[in-house]
Amino acid sequence: MEVVAIANQKGGCGKTTTAVNLSACLAAKGKKVLLIDLDPQGSATTHLAISSFEDTMYEAMIEDLNLSQLIKTTEINGLDIIPADKRLGRAEMEIASKSIARERILKPKIRILDTYDLIIIDTPPNLGFLTINAMVASDTVLVPIQTEFFAIQGLSMILDLAKAISEGLGQDLKLRYLLTMYDARTKMGKEVITRVRGLLGEDVFDVVIPRSIKLAEAPSYGKPIHMIDPEVPAAIAYSQLADEVIA
Ligand SMILES: Nc1ncnc2c1ncn2[C@@H]1O[C@H](COP(=O)(O)OP(=O)(O)OP(=O)(O)O)[C@@H](O)[C@H]1O
Ligand SMILES: [Mg+2]
User: Which stretches of the chain drop beneath a pLDDT of 50?
Assistant: First the structure.
């Protein structure tokens, strides 16, 4: 089992879009996948049109509920989800007020879900305790980077956090970077790609996710992009990302 947290404190860089579409593509390739929505915004949950649920990750993080009791199936074969909504927002403060092992609440709970090939965790746009718990529980942190002028600004914050976690755990937390929302019509887009690859080298995925209106519209259909139109470049790109993650 491989656990991948999707994280970047920068808002709107494509975390949820990547979490949902990567999970769905991995499932389409025959993997058994669990998507954990660890964001009180509940965007991944909404994107997959999951609406009727009682307990959320809040109960798991605070009241010590078993994660397996929270799992919901989705319309996609091979993809399950643990949903979230705004109630999870209270967890951040309550975890902060704990004194022992507050970074390690999620890890043991996730590690017993070993019937899954991959667990993907969507995180909120901050580096608070929810994100830290997701990173501590993971083997790899996938950092989406919007292909824009400010692409790498603030990146050192998550790099430093990953380093601190690696040192604290005594194991290497692997960081991988994904360029998103690339607009091939602009010269700046190409420059940003060159700059990011120059800085982060082989840790950047080969595939770049193009800017796509279809991708932005997909949540309103409650489906991942490949179920709406598998032929659009953004759908092909997420399928390639799934291949790179499997490799
Ligand atoms: N490749 C893309 N092309 C066009 N629109 C995109 C693309 N990726 C994401 N979007 C849109 O950009 C917005 C932000 O994306 P998304 O919700 O995935 O980011 P996020 O990092 O999860 O945001 P937050 O930090 O609020 O959780 C959404 O409206 C989404 O539909
Ligand atoms: Mg999000």
Answer: none
Q: How many CA atoms lie within 13 A of 27 on its CB side?
A: 24
Q: How far is the CA of 14 from the centre of ligand 2 (A)?
A: 7
Q: Whose CA is nearest to atom 25 of ligand 1?
A: 11
CATH number of 2-246: 3.20.20.70, 3.40.50.2000, 3.40.50.300, 3.40.50.970? Answer: 3.40.50.300
Give the position, in ligand 1's atom list, of the atom nearest the Cα of 17: 18
Q: Which two tokens stand for residue 192?
A: 């940003």
13 within ligand 1 shell (Cβ under 6 A) = yes
- Give the domain ranges of the chain: 2-246
CA dihedral sign, ordered 202, 205, 209, 210: positive
- Expressed in angstroms, the distance from the first to the final Cα of the chain is 14
Report the DSSP beta bridge partners of residue 182. 210
**Pairwise CA distance, residues 212 & 16, whole Å:** 15
Q: What count of residues does the chain have?
A: 247
Phi, psi (5° rounding) for residue 29?
Answer: -90, 15
User: How much is the pTM?
Assistant: 0.97
Q: Which tens digits make up the pLDDT trace of 80-110?
A: 999 999 999 999 989 989 878 899 999 999 9
